[in-house]
Amino acid sequence: MKKTLLLVLLGSIVLCGFIIATVPAKHILYRVDLPPHVKLYDVTGTLWSGQAGIVTAYQQPLENVRWEISALSLLFGTAKIDVLIGNQRIADSIYVNGQIQYSLFSQSTVIRNTDVKIPAETMLASANLPIPVLAKGNFNINVSAATFGGAPTFTCSNLDAAGKWQNAGVLGQSGLIELGEFLADVDCANNRYTLRVTEPNELGLSFTASGANIAQLAVTGKFKLPADAPQDLVQVAQFFGQANSSGYISFKF
């Protein structure tokens, strides 16, 4: 009798797993309470291996979002998800490749060993700059570890990441002005993200950009133009004010 009950129980578990594995992901995800600023469109595949044509997060569209969920990890109360967003070979697009772990008990989310690429133009467009800036290059960020609180707010409680603005440049009246490379680190506290760029770099640039999300950045910093700076760059610098006795121009917006 006990053997029969055990076989029935195992059979039920296998059947439920088979049903969940084959049900289209859109029938499940469209009924889940996602964070208020996250929306999914054109969902295909299954819950274990699926894709969303577009995901919007804080009004920022993310294209071609794919995921793989480890069924084995669920036995330990954690959903381990491998995520791939976009295409690394496409220069002017957002790209993410990494792993997300969601605890079913604490409802906390942990991100580990994740690479993120954001076009500089997208990043700078979110900042309230005094003048429009057409930027070149990408912000490449490596997230070693990040922890977020429970749903639905997903507040950031820990973030350890470093990045760089590669092949940096801005468009001036006479053409593209190459700026080299800028190094940065990223962290969070009290659900406020902070990105810091420090010297040395070709612009003598250092700044801190912070906010609740990428669309709400407050920036404070300074820069110092080199003696051989292009005239276009000199003219742009005038919008930020006058240099101090050390040659630095401060800015805040």
UniProtKB/TrEMBL annotation:
Q: Which GO terms describe its biological process?
A: protein secretion by the type II secretion system
Q: Tell me, in one coarse class, where this protein mainly resides.
A: membrane
User: Which species?
Assistant: Opacimonas viscosa
InterPro entries in the record, alphabetically?
Answer: T2SS_GspN_CS (IPR000645), T2SS_protein-GspN (IPR022792)
Keywords in UniProt for this one? Cell inner membrane, Cell membrane, Membrane, Protein transport, Transmembrane, Transport
What protein name applies here?
Type II secretion system protein N
Concerning Pfam families, the annotation shows: T2SSN (PF01203)
| Record-stated family | Belongs to the GSP N family.
Highest taxon above the source species: Bacteria
- What PROSITE patterns has UniProt attached to this entry? T2SP_N
Keyword Ribonucleoprotein on this protein?
no
What cellular-component terms does GO give this entry?
Answer: plasma membrane; type II protein secretion system complex
The answer to keyword Cell inner membrane applying to this record is: yes
